[in-house]
Prior knowledge:
The complex is a heterodimer.
Chain A: H1 2-32, H2 37-57, H3 60-77, H4 85-107, H5 114-129, H6 134-144, H7 149-157, H8 176-199, H9 208-227, E1 229-231, H10 233-236, H11 239-250, E2 254-259, E3 264-266, H12 267-288, H13 292-297, E4 304-313, E5 316-323, H14 330-339, H15 345-350, H16 353-359, H17 381-390, E6 394-400, E7 404-412, E8 417-425, E9 428-433, E10 437-444, E11 448-451, E12 454-459, E13 462-468, H18 469-473, H19 489-493, E14 499-507, E15 510-516, E16 518-526, E17 540-545, E18 551-555, H20 557-579
Parallel strand pairs in A: 2-4, 9-18, 13-15
Antiparallel strand pairs in A: 1-3, 4-5, 5-7, 6-7, 8-9, 8-16, 10-14, 11-12, 12-13, 14-15, 17-18
Helix pairs in contact in A: 1-2, 1-4, 2-3, 3-4, 3-5, 4-5, 5-6, 8-9, 11-12, 12-17, 14-16
Chain B: H1 2-11, E1 16-24, E2 27-32, E3 36-41, E4 45-46, E5 55-61, E6 64-69, H2 71-74, E7 88-93, E8 98-103, E9 108-113, E10 117-118, E11 134-140, E12 143-148, H3 150-168
Parallel strand pairs in B: 2-12, 6-8
Antiparallel strand pairs in B: 1-2, 1-9, 3-7, 4-5, 5-6, 7-8, 10-11, 11-12
Amino acid sequence: MKNKEEEYKEIFLAEAMSNFEEINRLLTNLEKDAKEKNTIHSLFRITHTLKGNAAGMGFQGIAELAHVLEDLFGEVRDGRISLDTNLFTSIYKAVDILGDLINAVKDKSEVKYKGIKTKLEVLIKRAKEDNNQLNKSSEQDFISAPGDDLNETEDVNSPGEMNNKLSFSDLVQVPVRKLDNLLNLVGELIIEKDRILASQAGGLRASNEYARLSRISSDLQYSVMDVRLVQVGFLFNKFHRVVRDAASSEQKNVTLKLEGTETEIDRNVLQVISDSLIHLIRNCVGHGIEAPEERKKAGKPEAGVITLSARNETDAVLIEISDDGKGLNYDRIKSKAIAKKLITEEDASKLSKDDLSLLIFEPGFSTMDQVTSISGRGVGMDVVKKTLDSIGGTIQLVSHEGQGTVIQLTLPSSMAVKSSLLFELDREVYAIPLAYTESVISLYKSDIHKAGGGLVATHLGKNIAVVFLNDVFDQNIDLLGYQQNILQKSFDKIHMEQKLEIVVCTFNNRTVGFVVDRLLQQKEIVEKPLMRPVDRIKFISGVTILGSGNVCLVLNVPHLLQFIFSLSTAGKNAKTFNLN
Amino acid sequence: MAEIKKTKEQSSSTRSLQIVVFKLGNEEYGLQIDQIKEVVITPNITRVPQTPSYVKGVANIRGNVIAIFDLEDRFNLERTIQTQGSKYTLVVESEDVKMGLLVNAVPNTVSVNASDLDETVGIISDANADSNYIKGIIKSGNRLIILVDIFKVIDHEMTSAIKKATVAA
Lengths: 580, 169
């Protein structure tokens, strides 16, 4: 908790310092050209922001002084006070003290600000009473202004110019673009390192120099990645408002609880999922939490609680959104899915609750019969899932009727570098992100059996579907119509004694073992997106350049699995069609 | 050749076009020089699934991973390019697309008069070539060069790629 507060303070300070510098800059501009309206407007705005931030952080002094300055600039803006040298002197003085106050937050020193504050207040008051005689009398009024006499003299002693030492913030604001660039360069460096290594076959790999180079480059990589990490709290804190707005328009009573806000995650990941999170939370308010009367009847407190929590797990960040609402209505999901032809009635009875939960992420699915402004437009949950797929995240949903729903998002903590398994297939090298791989097994052909249109093997007591990646890649997409035994083609060709290397992949509760030609190594890769005109290839999520300079394709596991399973349902449909 | 130039110059514009000429099948094809970025020795090409046969794959050219096309395959011409070890790759670039074309030899550059370009030829195109990527025919001496707008070819590629993506999904 303490750390979090410290961090907020640091951020406030950085912002306040830049505000302070901006005020100084604008003031000097204003002194040169007092008629420039825009400058006044900016000053008004900045002091207003500073006031708000300071009040939020509980720094009374800064807030009060900024408030007076804001008023003053407001009066100037509205033409009730005209600017002259005297006024500028006092404004500069006030701004200097504001700077001192900001610094005082850091070193906890005491700064007296009441005097200058009162001075400005009197000025504003006078301006309100009578703005005609202001110019003449202002100076005298200053000195005889009521207020703390002691402070007054101190204020007069402290010079109006900036001859006190310049202060610098300990934080640097960097545009994300520059960080992206930096990370790209680090990626190139690593590729280049591998390349040099590959060209210097033998000897070098074991040498000290190589070990050092590897260590430094991987340290560099992780430091750059670390710079890009931000606390999820920054995003989570924005959701108070989202929940409030959604709840008030639905006339529900909802409170939001945040947990684990100090968890760190790559800034880009956070950006990508922010819309999805908003959607999920609105869904919780719209679908999950019941209306107050309904809750009373069910014996729950009137106010529903949505908990948003985050925590780190080895290579991932888990974000959980849970509510204490009515939970999923599985019967409704079932009938809806049948009505929308997502599943057949026959399938519906076989599906487990987990499978049913997954249905709500199918495109065009929405259980709300009515469309409300908050949720239920039927777009959304599938978009959420696609967004997560695109960054290699997963979504899981657990629900207990009457007790609420928990949605769990597993997100990669960084997007740039992926640990991957390299393998060879038909003389090309492919990479498969370790995030999706479960295990690597080797089986003989005799261990694999034909079942239906596909292949099945038993491993550690579990039945897994086996697919020859070649068969999938060989698909002629123009002839995509279901062909009999499409996924058994390579299997039929191989020798009975052949040993097969299988990479078992899981995604969204679907498990498939991919047969590959040869397993190579495990490697951290920097994935680059495919460029036009081949950017629409779905099986490949990106490419990376190997040490040899050759291009290695990175498999898009979510899409591959989706394709394989849609193929089997397509087959099913074709069969039923034939029967008719 | 000089003669032709002279007479044409008198009748119409004197603007000259720089055309990069390469052989595909038994014909000579040309591209406007400003569409071409460089000619490199063909690097190792990685085949990519889900692509039509004329997309040979992707290759690493100076740190950029770009798609490599075989236009002979695309235009259904007689194959003279060896898929394995075809020597040169012509890198073409527009604002948003960068790609490589396989060629057998280093292309040569020809300077022709703008009036030598006949853009109005009625070319009988096969029914499914719905994009008109042939810009015109250049007659230069006794050579006949087919000027193509490579990005029209690619635009067509992309729309069909979209179609495929929707079918697959």
